[in-house]
Amino acid sequence: MTLVLVHGVPETAAVWDPLRAALSRQDVRALRMPGFGCPRPDGFSATKEEYVAWLAGELEAMADDEIDLVGHDWGGGLVVRLVSTRPDLVRTWATDAAGLGHPAFEWHDLARLWQTPGAGEEFFEQLLATPLEERAKGFEGFGVPFEHALEIAAGVDQVMAASILALYRSAVRVGEEWSPAFADIPAPGLVIVPEGDAFLVRSVAEESAARAGATVAELPGLGHWWLLQDPATGAARLEEFWDSAR
Length: 246
Known about the structure:
alpha/beta
């Protein structure tokens, strides 16, 4: 059995380190999305469908294992699509981005900026010209402990910025495109709902969970980066879910 973790934006696989340390299991593999702390393969244009295909390929390479799949942020969005189209690849799945599989999903203001040609490029030009500690303060404002905020901010580079822009621009109508298949998922699922997630609409997440047949795990007092704010609580909720699926 293998636990596969998929990070989000703008992150690298290191975002999972505190949660991994809090888990009792050792069979853990944190994937690196192409372009996020690693190069993008030749010909990889960083669209949402290419990332889903990449994730499916990673799981297919582990076909001899039973996979517990967990995604955060865009990694959670990839989980939504993966289990909609290839539920056979996982034993269980968990996501904090179930809204991407809802027909009424709407992007937040920052995503809309990134989806705007010119404005998105200008955003990242200004960000990369900003001193590291000042960049980190932006993540602190979302409840990320400063040491982890520094790590996230330091990981953003030109390759990641270009990957983020391409990914978001491929996903303008993601709810419309992905929601029809995100229903009655046969593998056991968990939808994580942090109480203070500024990028999540609770009702949309809960309705998505109901459509998919998934359990909801509320995280009171935690925000978007719950896995950094209180990894012990996140680990406990995940382990309860995995135990119930045995």
